[in-house]
Design a protein that fits this description.
The protein is mainly α. About 80% of the residues lie in helices and about 0% in strands. It has 14 helices and no strands. It has helices spanning about 1-25, 30-55, 65-85, 90-100, 105-120, 125-150, 155-165, 165-180, 185-195, 200-210, 220-245, 250-260, 270-275, 280-300. Helix 1 (about 1-25) runs antiparallel to helix 14. The longest helix has 28 residues, at about 125-150.
Length: about 300
């Protein structure tokens, strides 16, 4: 438990703390956070998603397990969005992103290193498949919903054009096309996407720290607490029920998937909130709450 906290849990969390410290010191402000987030949205995230989806080996994945995991995400997403909208009276965009935060985990830069240490390289099979389904359906679908909401008064063709111009959606489509077609990427493309994609998580977390530096840490954010409870407690319980109640799954596929379910909220809902100018404080606090709480849940499941 202590070794997992020292590496990789705390180093990842420390990037966000650095953003808070430098923002409190006056070196970075909200405008800087917006600029960093634009780089993440337009360059780093598209590169990362293209690299992951174009090279994902999904042939060895148990699709029953993947289907159960996705169904658990749908339940958490719907429940989180409904509670945010009905109980907390959030706007449609914020409710959508709080729902996404309730099930979208920091799998690439948080759970994957831990799972690899615990279960070896075979752990990447189920986690890569979950990343593929999350980025294509969950992440891509949320962006489509936000695009539709932000272009509600415009014609359907303008909405479609906004999809085509969205770098994240384009990178998802291109990555899947390369994967399905079996094309071999030039090494220069791999180098670029690897180099740019590696900046996605640290840049997003640093930007999050800048924004959170202006928040009141001592006051409990009830929206964030709700999302954290759904993500850290309810999601792994629902996933465990699905994984153990219907079929006998290979532990080398099931256990890493359970780790993902118990992982903290990912930074992508925050990135989208910043990009679409939606209230981001509760989403950011949910990332902090869930990251701290996941130390316990990940240790229990591991």
């Amino acid at each position: 438990m202590i070794s997992a906290f020292l590496n990789p849990i705390f180093p990842v969390f420390a990037i966000m703390l650095a953003g808070i410290v430098f923002s409190r010191g006056g070196l970075f402000d909200g405008a800087a956070a917006q600029a960093i987030n634009r780089f993440v949205f337009y360059v780093a995230v598209p590169a990362l998603l293209f690299l992951l989806l174009s090279g994902a080996d999904l042939g060895t994945m148990d699709y029953r397990l993947l289907g159960f995991y996705f169904f658990s995400e749908v339940l958490l997403y719907t429940g989180g969005a409904a509670i945010a909208r009905i109980v907390f009276s959030c706007g449609p965009g914020e409710a959508l992103l709080l729902g996404m935060a309730s099930c979208f985990v920091n799998h690439v830069f948080f759970v994957l290193p831990i799972a690899t240490i615990l279960y070896g390289e075979q752990a990447t099979t189920s986690i890569t498949a979950i990343i593929a389904i999350d980025t294509t359906i969950l992440f891509g679908g949320t962006i489509m919903g936000l695009e539709i909401a932000s272009h509600r008064s415009e014609s359907i063709w303008r909405v479609v054009r906004s999809f085509v111009r969205n770098p994240v959606l384009v990178s998802i489509a291109l990555g899947l096309m390369v994967n399905i077609s079996g094309l071999t990427l030039h090494e220069g493309i791999v180098t670029f996407t690897s180099f740019a994609g590696a900046a996605a998580a640290p840049a997003a977390l640093f930007s999050l720290g800048i924004i959170l530096a202006r928040s009141r840490f001592l006051s409990l954010d009830y929206r964030a607490a709700m999302v954290t409870g759904l993500k850290i407690i309810i999601h792994p319980l629902v996933a465990w029920f699905f994984f153990t109640g219907f079929f006998e799954f290979d532990p080398l596929l099931r256990n890493p998937a359970l780790l993902v379910a118990a992982g903290p909220c990912g930074a992508m809902p925050f990135v989208l909130a910043m990009q679409y100018k939606i209230r981001a404080e509760s989403i950011g606090m949910a990332i902090i709450y869930s990251t701290v709480a996941s130390l316990l849940t990940l240790s229990i499941i591991a």
